[in-house]
Write a structure and sequence with these properties.
Elements (H helix, E strand, L loop, with lengths): L2 H10 L1 H11 L4 H21 L14 H25 L6 H25 L8 H27 L3 H48 L1
Helix pairs in contact: 1-2, 2-6, 3-4, 3-5, 4-5, 4-7, 5-6, 6-7
Length: about 210
């Protein structure tokens, strides 16, 4: 079974698909990376190129770095957080399996973002509800797939899986906070050495 067929099978039969992936060690890390980048690209297209009638974003102030952080970086942080938490709670899923399951689960939401960006040019304002329906269904489908995938790879029951996901989300915010503090610290250190260097140069000139 090639990667595309496997993805389609998992989308149509997530329970059996993720179970087979766990049992037979299938799933493509390469495909997972592509899906995460597609999430970034779809979010960028959705923010920048959705019809002005349906786009509440200021397209002239689009921050590509922020979109990248809120997609690819968020995806990476979630996989790290989930792996850390589930390791403590006897989860059987490996980090690679978490990466693949999370990426495959994103596919419906990514498709919905592309679909909304395209359909927005063919719908009237009175049909705005359909835009919300498409994104809501895509997001809900992705969440359900993620829950099923986590149950299968970690061999959790529903309650334990829900707890692990909630703690994983909290862990993501903690990682973001610590990363922000680290960046601020690095910035202060660089500024400190820059000030010292400038001071020494000024004194050498004098």
């Amino acid at each position: 079974m090639n990667v595309f067929k496997e993805m389609m099978y998992i989308l149509m039969h997530p329970i059996n698909g993720f179970e087979d992936m766990k049992q037979y060690k299938t799933g493509s890390l390469y495909a997972a990376g592509i899906v995460s980048l597609l999430w970034f690209f779809a979010s960028l297209v959705h923010t920048q190129y959705t019809s002005p009638w349906f786009n509440a974003n200021d397209t002239e102030k689009t921050n590509i770095l922020l979109i990248f952080v809120s997609t690819v970086v968020l995806y990476i942080f979630f996989t790290i957080s989930n792996w850390s938490i589930c390791t403590l709670f006897d989860g059987e899923g490996s980090y690679i399996e978490i990466v693949i399951v999370t990426a495959y689960s994103l596919i419906p939401y990514v498709v919905s973002l592309f679909a909304v960006s395209i359909f927005s040019y063919f719908l009237s304002l009175d049909e705005y509800m359909f835009i919300n329906v498409i994104t809501s269904v895509g997001l809900l489908y992705s969440v359900i797939m993620l829950m099923i995938g986590m149950i299968q790879i970690h061999q959790y029951n529903f309650i334990r899986m829900g707890f692990a996901l909630i703690v994983s989300v909290i862990g993501v915010f903690l990682i973001l906070f610590l990363s922000f503090l680290m960046l601020m610290l690095i910035r202060e250190i660089i500024e400190f050495f820059r000030t010292i260097t400038n001071e020494l140069l000024m004194r050498s000139v004098v």
